[in-house]
Amino acid sequence: MHPETSVKLMKVVNSIRELNQILAVIRENGGQIGFVPTMGALHEGHLSLVRESVRENDVNVVSIFVNPTQFNDKNDLVSYPRTLEADCRLLEAEGCDIVFAPSEEEMYPEPDTRVFNLGRVAEVMEGAFRPGHFNGVAQVVSKLFDIVQPDAAYFGEKDFQQIAVIREMVRQLGYTLRIVACPILREPDGLAMSSRNVRLTPSQRQNAPVIARTLKESTTFVPGKSVEEVKAHVIETINREPEMKVEYFEIVDGNTLESIRDWSETQFPVGCITVFCGPVRLIDNIKY
Ligand code: AMP
To answer: Which residues are catalytic?
Structure first.
């Protein structure tokens, strides 16, 4: 690698202009740029994406931006944890080169009125329960891709549907970057790591692992039990736990995200779930 393709100390950049200047030099020198978009409040799940990006690229950029346009619930936006300083310390320790932490004005000097048509993958599940969410995700991720122009971008499979939506956006807009899907990181008790977990009360936190536990258990019922029976079992088991309410649980074809009725309909069945644990909305998924 050319020496000028490496950035020695981690830089925290707030302006698009400054980021452009830094990345232009890296690109001119043939440096491969890896990119991890996040909303901050970083945990091991995020850091696993960063590690993969650091491993595969010459320069790694992590964005930290709580994107208002993807929040359909104002309370969720207001209560979303913001921990920029601690995030930067974690990222520096992982060998991250550049943190891009823009203000809302920097990202949206004027309202983003673009409407994406991302087809069925954006309409089902999260698309149905969080109107406008994926349009906001497409707005911010396309802006970030335009700013960073990465060679590869890293996303977590915890947001399984989000990856399908991003792939569709990339296809439609003709981006040439590589989308890398990284496995879900979990707490020792199985709970999928999430920035929202810190909002759980101690008793909610104690009950929340029922989600992952039940999903895992449900894989042992396949193909003996029908799709309908597995769905009913998962929903009933989780709903029995205090303060837990399943919003939806769908078993889908992992490529099209269409619900299946019979295991024979796909080689790649995935169970996607959203559960309210008190007021906190948790998501998870499992491959069968
Ligand atoms: P967020 O900050 O929640 O927007 O997440 C930023 C990225 O980290 C997304 O690609 C998420 O899918 C990913 N991510 C969040 N939690 C996890 C996890 N537990 N395991 C793996 N990736 C995760």
So the answer is: 46
